[in-house]
């Protein structure tokens, strides 16, 4: 159930007892009303799946292994620079697993994704400069 309108109606008559009140309307098909509806109805249910968490953990381990192997192959410590960012992403992933509410789930998922994206960016910068 959702409320239509965000405040008192503009065409409300002042003498009527229900003047200026919002009406509750059934949602019907479940259409998404805005970005917050999109977030809470579509995105957050998928962020709670255990398989998604496991796949993200495996991706983090593979990326960390690639950084360590690249450091050994290039005989340089520069490929190890993304490891703290991957550690931040892992911390966000662990907190995502234990998040109680939707807001915490979204915040820690954003920390995870930001850590991954910045780590990829650092890897590309290092690859460009060491090439």
TrEMBL record:
Keywords: Membrane, Transmembrane, Transmembrane helix. Residues 1-30 are annotated as: Disordered. The chain crosses the membrane at residues 52-71, 105-126. This is Uncharacterized protein. The lineage of its organism: Bacteria, Bacillati, Actinomycetota, Actinomycetes, Pseudonocardiales.
């Amino acid at each position: 159930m959702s409320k239509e309108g965000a405040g008192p109606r503009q065409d409300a008559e002042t003498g009527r007892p229900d003047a200026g009140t919002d009406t509750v309307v059934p949602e019907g098909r479940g259409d998404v009303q805005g970005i917050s509806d999109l977030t809470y109805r579509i995105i957050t249910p998928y962020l709670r799946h255990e398989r998604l968490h496991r796949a993200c953990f495996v991706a983090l381990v593979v990326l960390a292994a690639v950084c360590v192997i690249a450091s050994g192959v290039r005989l340089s410590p520069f490929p190890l620079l993304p490891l703290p960012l991957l550690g931040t992403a892992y911390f966000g992933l662990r907190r995502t697993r234990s998040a109680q509410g939707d807001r915490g789930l979204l915040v820690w998922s954003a920390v995870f994704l930001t850590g991954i994206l910045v780590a990829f960016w650092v890897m590309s910068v290092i690859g460009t400069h060491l090439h």
